[in-house]
Amino acid sequence: MKILLIGATGMIGSRVAAEARARGHEVTGTTRRGAGGTARLDAADAGAVAALAAGHDAVVLAVSPPRDGSEPAAPLLAAGRGVLEGLRGAGVRRLVVVGGAGSLEVAPGARLVDTPGFPAIYKNESLAQAELLQVIRAEAGDLDWTYVSPAAEIAPGERTGTFRTGGDRLLTDAAGDSRISAEDYAVALVDELEKPQAVGRRITVAY
C-alpha cells in the first residue's frame, strides 16, 4: 500500500510511519517545513495535497493544532478541509485521521473535554480536534474516512499489539484509567488501513 502521511515527524506520526514501513508499506512523509527528509506540504493547500496524494492508496492526516498560544481551531480546520479537497482532486478515497480524545463521551451526551477535571492546557487543542471531527462527519461523506481517537493518555511506550477498540465512548480499564502507548495506537491505525472496519465513523483505542 502507498500511504501519504501528513505530519510524519510528530510523536504519533513518526510511529505510524515506522509501523507501516515495518509491514512493507510505502510511506511518503510530509511536514509543513519539509523537516527530517520529508516532503514539504501545507495541508491547507488543496492543490498541493492533490499533487502529492496522486497515486497513493490512502492518506493519513496526523497534524496537531498549533501550541504557540494562538487560536488552534482555524489552522487545524483549514488543514482538514484542504486534505478533503485534495483527496478529491487526486482521486484518493481512503483517509484516516489521527484525532483527539477530548470529544469522546464519558456518559451519554457528556464529552471528556467538558468534564471539570480536564487539564486546561489541553482544552483548546481538544476542542479544535472535536471541531475537525464535526467537519469530517459533515463534509466527507463521499470519502472512505476513519477518525481514530486515542485514550485519554497517550505517550511513547511499548508496542504490545494488545489493546481494545471502541467507538464514541472513552475506554477505561478496571482502575478507571484510560491510556495507550503511541506505538500501540500506531498498530491500531495501520490495522484499520490494512483491513478497514470503521469506514465513515470514529473509533478509539485503549488498554
UniProtKB/TrEMBL annotation:
SUPFAM superfamilies associated with the record: NAD(P)-binding Rossmann-fold domains
Gene3D superfamilies, per database record: NAD(P)-binding Rossmann-like Domain
UniProt domain NAD(P)-binding: residue ranges: 7-196
One GO MF term: oxidoreductase activity, acting on the CH-NH group of donors, NAD or NADP as acceptor
Family matches, as InterPro entries: NAD(P)-bd_dom (IPR016040), NAD(P)-bd_dom_sf (IPR036291), Polyketide_Oxido-like (IPR051606)
Source organism, top-level taxon: Bacteria
PANTHER family the record matches: FLAVIN REDUCTASE (NADPH)
Name by which UniProt lists this protein: NAD(P)-binding domain-containing protein
Native species: Actinomadura namibiensis
